[in-house]
Every structure is written in structure tokens, then in C-alpha cells.
Amino acid sequence: MSEMADPAVAVRFAPSPTGRLHIGNIRSALLNALYAKKASGTFMLRLDDTDVERSTEAFADGIREDLTWLGLTWERTAKQSDRFERYDAVAQDLKARGLLYACYETPEELDAKRKRQRLRGLPPVYDRSALDLTDADRAKLEGEGRKPHWRFKLDGSTVTWTDLVRGEVSIDTASISDPVLIRADGTYLYTLPSVIDDVDFAITHIIRGEDHVTNSGAQILVFRALGATEPAFGHHSLMTDASGEGLSKRLGSLSVAALREEGLEPLSILSLLARLGTSDPVEPRTSLEAIIEGFDLSRLSRAPARFDPAELTALNGKILHTMTYAEAEPRLAAKGIEASQALWDAVHENLSVLEDVAAFRALIDGPIEPAAAAEDADYLAEARTSLPEGEMTEETWGAWTGALKAATGRKGKALFMPLRLALTGRAHGPEMGKLLPLIGREAILTRLASAAGD
After folding, report:
1. Residue 443 in contact with residue 425, Cβ under 8 Å?
2. Helix, strand or coil, per DSSP, at residue 100
3. Is 29 in contact with 45 (CB distance < 8 Å)?
């Protein structure tokens, strides 16, 4: 399906504020935001905070901070904790219509039922025995102190939709358990508040992980029970690590806060996530608009999307390599990193993260620990005496090494590497021609002398 401009498109990202966002959350948020923004529609942030014990305002603030840092702005927002009266009214209506029914089994009893069904080769589907309870039965159970949980009565139909990612999908609702919508303590599970919100906020497209496919079949029947037409659905594949294993054990280290602390650029994260799970090449994008332009939800594959932190780091470097000093300077200043146009020109193509500028600044200012080999001492002494007079320029390096080549017969690595090691302490790094003017003549002579053992 190709996205066309449609201001009627409305999507939502609905995290629970029970923790910080991680890379899996962000991929879902990004796909929703890109779909809406490409259609000139609206992107809604909805905080699903019905779990009042675990939800905190601090986590809600963290979610907003993470999305803002990534540049994923929203046009509308809501909190489910503000809407309990609305949910209660709908629940009462469903109860009155017999679509929401009371069940009294304990978790242990339900588990025992499922085990017996498996032993008999039957699917572990709820048997609806609660529907056979009489008023007297219910009074007796409640007299024992039991509180009911409430299930939505599925109609047993086959629900079919054309998924934005997976194509034709069918769910036989006779093969799944009636979903619990209200716990025994009276709190709501995800399904009912989510469907009510999607109806009330006129959500047109629900884009989320493939682990919700079966849930969607049941939720479509809830939409219809409320007299609403269900939105379009798109279920994207889940992410794995580079080896194909699930990311669940690593999500803490892949939180947005952790990635930000590592110095990764928001656009490198978005550029990668927008292409994961597609056959399109992962390329650095320097604006959200460029990512939107190349986005098409239909290009997502059903195969797992593999996330490799090394690929993210490499992409981050590519984005920094195209960044101008004017763009970088205020951010460097905010981090307390002293820089200049000349320094940026010399080192930006060697950056992995912006904070690497500080390490190159320290390399230039010194002192450094020279790493020259002992057998190169005479060569470095020769280099010291043959350093061109006057101010160091970008041309100095070529003239200097040319003279040394003629005088010593050295060439290639044997000519260049001892000088790099003596002057920077590193085997790799920015072009030496650009570093020499920054290091300066006196420091060059001092470092050569130290490396030569003088």
C-alpha cells in the first residue's frame, strides 16, 4: 500500500509509563510517526497508565523527553488515568448486554484447567463455565470472598482484515479464549481502554508489533460491540539481535537514555530503524524529512528485523562526517568541548560519536604518550632535523615526508607510521597534514625528541 497525503490519517503511540523507552518501543513509535507525517495526518502520544501502581509521572516525563530528543513530536496527547469514568460507563453497558460476564476462577484453577485440556490434546481455551453459574452460585462464591474478573464474550466468528504489512489475516475467534478485560481487583487490562480511546480519538490506523495479531482479532469484535468500525491494522515484525536472538535480555542497555548517554545521534537511530526489516539499504539521513520521504510501510518484510549495535555506531559516524561545524559548534559548547573550525575540519571524518572531539582536542594539546618503536629512533631524529622551517600548514606534511623519503629511502608504512605514532600515539586517526598545523612546530619537535629518546 502506498501512502498518499491524507489529513484524515490518525495514529497513536501508546506506551505504558512503567519504564523508559527502549529500541523496540522506538521502532514502533517511529513507524507510526512516519506513516502519519507522510500522509500529513496526526500522531498521538497516549500514555496507557491504567496500571496505577507501576505507572509514574517520572516515567511519563522520561517518555516525553526521549521522544522529543529523537524529534518524534506529537500533535495530540492523552492519559488513560484521566478517563476511568468513560471506561466504567462502557463496561457497564457491555455487562448489561451480556457481552462482559463475571468469572470467579482463581489463577491456580485456570492453570489447572489449561493443563487438563493440554493432556486431552485440546487447545487451552477458556471453557465459559462461568456462563452456567446461577445467581445463587455467584452469591455463594462472593460470600466466600471471591471477586469476579470480567471476560468479553467473543462471537466465535472468523475475523479477517487486510494488514498493512502482513496482507490478508484471518483469526478464528472460536479458537481463542474470551479475553479478560477487567481484573478481579477492578482494574482494567489493556484491551478495553485501548479500544475505547481508539474510537473516541478517531484513530484510523493501528501500527504495532506482530505479537498483537491474535489480540487484534479479539479487539476488532470489541470495536464492533461498541458500534464502531475498526481501524486499519499493520503488524510489523519484532526485532532480534545480530545473531537472530530476541532482544528481551538486552533492552536495558538499548534504552533511549542509554543510547543517548553513549553519544549516539537521534538521526542515526531513526535512519537505522526506518530501514530495518526492509530490503532497502541503510543510509545516513540528516533530517527527519529525508527519512519520511523514503518511507513506505508496505516495504516492511514479515521476517524478523535484525538490530546490530555495530551497524548503528557505523551509521552514527557517517552522519557526523557530513555535519558542518556550524551545526556541531553549539552542541560541542553545551558539552564543554573546546573546538574550532580547523579542529572540526581535521577530525570530523574520524568521529564515531560527537564526544570523540574531546579526545582529539586532548591529542592536539598534549601531552601524549609516544608509541614509536625503538628501532625508529634514528629515523625520528632525522625527521626532527628535516622538519620544514616556518609555520606549519597542510602542505608541510607532504614536503616533510617527501624529503625524508629522499634522504632515508623509506616509503609507505615505514615512512609514515613512525611519525604518526610519535606525534599522536595512535596508529590511526585524522590526516596528518591537517593535524600538523594544530599541533604546532614546537610541540612537533618536542614529541619527536621524546619519541627518539632525546
Report:
1. no
2. strand
3. no
